[in-house]
From TrEMBL:
NCBIfam families: priA, PRK05580.1-3. Residues 281-447 form the Helicase ATP-binding domain. SUPFAM superfamilies: P-loop containing nucleoside triphosphate hydrolases. This is Replication restart protein PriA.
Amino acid sequence: MAVAQVIIDIPAQQTNRPFDYEIPEELSDIAVPGVRVLVPFGRSGHLRQGFIWRTQDKSEFAGRLKPIAQILDLDPVLNAEMLGLASWLAEDTFSFLISCLQTMLPSALRANYQRRFYLTAPLAENDPVNQLLDHEASGLIPDKIDSALLAHLKRLEQSQQLRIEYQIKQKTKIKQEKQYSGCLQMTEYQDLFNQARANAVQQRQLLQLLVAEPSFAGNVKTWQAQLPELKSSTLTQAVQKGWLKEALVEVYRQPEVESVTTTKQQLTDEQQAAYEAIIAAISDAQNQTFLLEGVTGSGKTEVYLDAIAYARQQGKTALMLVPEISLTPQMVERVQSRFPHEVAVLHSGLSIGERYDEWRRIERGEAQVVVGARSAAFAPLKNIGVLIMDEEHEGSYKQDDMPRYHARDVILKRAETYHCPVILGSATPSLESRARAQKGRYQLLKLTKRPNQIQMPTVNVVDMRQAEKVAGKSDFSLQLITEVKKRLERHEQSVLLLNRRGYANFIMCRDCGHVIKCPNCDISLTLHRDIQALKCHYCDHQEPIPATCPACHSSKIRDYGVGTQKIEQQLQELFPEARLLRMDVDTTSRKGGHQRIIRQFGRHEADILLGTQMIAKGLDFPEVTLVGVINADTSLSLPDFRASERTFQLLTQVSGRAGRAAKSGQVFIQTYNPDNYAIQLAAKQDYETFYQTEMRLRHQGGYPPYFYTVLISVNHAQEDQAVKKVYQIQRWLQPKLSPQAIVLGPTPRMITRVNNQYYYQLIIKYKNEPRLLIALQTLIMNMQGKNNRGFQLRIDREPLQFM
Ligand SMILES: Nc1ncnc2c1ncn2[C@@H]1O[C@H](COP(=O)(O)OP(=O)(O)OP(=O)(O)O)[C@@H](O)[C@H]1O
Ligand SMILES: [Zn+2]
Ligand SMILES: [Zn+2]
């Protein structure tokens, strides 16, 4: 008997293994690893979606196997490489296999379950379940359902007053359109034309076209391009008359792009040297990782594009990852114009359908160059020649939910499979990568200059403790404002950064000091002026802005902190004539918002771009000659050993937006810590000294890259339970580690309560702990036990967030 081992899509420890199913005879050809199936699962026998993991001749399972109910794909959606990658990923990130398999696929291919109940006995009149009925005796159970109501439904199910069914909704929709094509001989069309009534103008035009080209084919638009007056009804009639044949053909939803022409640049000597090292590795199929450390504006992208071009010449494909926020139209257009018709773009701005179509183009080998954000690391390219990660230091390459993978690790793994090089590029490499280059594990390639004798911007540190401020606007030094004014006079552009990290706009009472906090989380609510509301950034809570203090009823309640909206208002008061664009979570939350703002700024439809960290990367606009950092310090004070590194990176990157073309650039960094080494070295754009200094501090503190780290966090609705559990875990784990391992904590997480769950954590720092992996896997198993209900465990290897 043919047996399929299936991974069921229930992300839980109990189901985190393959289950055996019989392959019915008629499905034996298509039941291969990597296809999605529907199988009956559990006592209820509800159909669930799953993936065939392996096939074999017999089963170890003693009982009778259930057969596969349905196969969803004619060809596997995951190939052997992807299945292997999933297996590695699950182990490396302590994740369920099913979570890994799903992460690799576009969401259109994920099953979407609906829970529907069917009444088997009438409900009491006042039963709350009545409100869920959408048919006579059935209703949908919403995903976000009140837990009391859900418990009530369960009770009704147990007492057999209703039954609950899982229904699978496919999100996959292949888009099709009608294609009309000529199906007669030229002479036949000629006869028809001669017979046509003189006043049937459209028909005559159509026939005329067919006489000239009997096999003309295309969709309505193609026909209309030839015959602009043509109505689609005329085409339908022509089909009915047998003049044309009609067919449904599959089409791709492709996001629109503006076309630009970019010419290939003559590489500088430094670029050329880097390029040659890389292409040697491509042509020799060497699995070598390069760290391309190039100052801002040094032309790293140019090197990537040439490396991709080389891989293409060799008949290979290429993948380029960029952080979500640098997937600007500018970047995408640059790649697309170099490789017309070969590029697929994957980012979160696409609709589910567009993403699915781009994925299919890659999967079928119709797109050979992929540009995308984090999850594009799993793009189903084959025969990869080079893998690139731009801005490799960016935190957004690490996923925050299960599987907690880092895209860098994924592409390094794929490079092993394809025996190809990886290029990690940045002006400010992560300490981890730079240290690996130091050790020779990566090959360091440097670009120290901008091309065409373009100078690095001059950076001025403005000491805000002493600086003269603009009257009534304490966030601005006179110096910075004077510079902005100069730019306005010269019709040049300015970029102003508000360093928002760990900083928000909150409401406080001036009389009693009361701060308005989220009822569910230990964090103050943030003011959003555009929607006139207070919002919690951790849960969905939202409430109106109160007119008086809820504690003392004073009316002297006002906002503190520096929000982008407040700064925008102040700028508008200072420069009423200036055209301002603001870029932050509020203005970019709608689809394409980010793109739209960057395009507008690029067309010089605004003089000043004000924004959060989002504006620090990827912008390459010749008219930007001033960059101002309003508050450099906020990210320095965070309780995280990477605080200096992040501040340095942010300041260096944003400074790099200035003076990238003919006009020279200036940067002004406002700070209350002018002597801080991260700020000083960012002002000098001196990555190497920063690297040396920071490495010494990391060594002293025993932090990465000298140590590895794992974060273990538990949460529970009751604080004392969470505390008890975290101590219990610590006592259990400590003896399993060597004396060299350091366990920090237990400590409450910085924001201890989120969404009414209390979070406590441990951090393990270690160099070499062969037994740690097994211990953590055992811990995961133990936490699934009955006496651990209500707890959630999270294990994060090499976490980037400790808060
Ligand atoms: N060899 C070259 N000759 C002339 N111009 C070049 C050359 N290489 C790159 N450029 C131009 O220099 C500018 C900066 O290049 P690019 O955007 O590739 O730099 P980058 O290192 O990726 O920058 P950043 O990391 O700051 O985003 C671009 O406008 C690019 O067209
Ligand atoms: Zn909240
Ligand atoms: Zn008050």
